[in-house]
Here is the input.
Amino acid sequence: MGYSNLDLAEYAESLFFAENFEEAFNALEAQVKKLGFDGVLYTYIPQIILASNFSLGPVYKVSRDYNPKYLEHYTDARFDRHDPLINAVKDGVKESIDWWGDINKTYMAANKAGEEVIATSRDYGISNGITLPLMSEEKGIAGASFITSESRFFDSLKNENTQWLKLCTKMFHSMVLSNSHHVGHFVKPILSDLNHTEKAFLKGLARGETPGQISADLNRSNKYLEQVMLKLRRKLSGVSPETPPQLNRNQILYYAGLSDLIDKLN
Here is the structure.
């Protein structure tokens, strides 16, 4: 199985003219199916979620045929905190990762909890999977996983089509990063966890306003806003009120800026 220049041109056009994130992802899903895989999961994890030790779960976008029960199990069990594939991407692994291959086995050996993540996928009928690392930098990490129930011919499928899979997925990923509305899909957990005052305070700081200016705008005292920042630091660090927050004010502003978070506060 392969691709013609016309197929690739049509795919690029479908990404370019997509009216929203859903349409763009559907275009990727269609290419994945043409290449012989059953489903795709894509995620972009902003650095602020990584820095908080996954106190907030990442957002995943999955195709219709990606086993929903497995994803529900994965989310409820918070497998993201132990997923060897996520750890590999965080460490900067660049080559494609076979779920049953040597790279993943190395990460599972160093993280016993990670074995359950992969073993559980087989319980849900996922015979084989490949993860393509797409980004590991200051903004965060990103990757896409492709699954199939195919067993006998998986190696030939993988060898023949992985390069096309990489090309199509990198085109999609580049489109996501270039569009702040698409990026917004993956910072929803952060936004939904902030109240109106916290959003307004953070947005004011990002504009370069002093605490005094922000307190005047919000009709609040400086001491009150100090407590707002402390709550923000604890909330985004994922710790209880009795535990010192891991993130300081400058880190929150830095990560928020990298995630285009400030532009999406309302």
In short: Residues 154-177 form the longest helix (24 residues). The longest strand covers residues 128-137. The two ends are 47 Å apart (CA to CA).
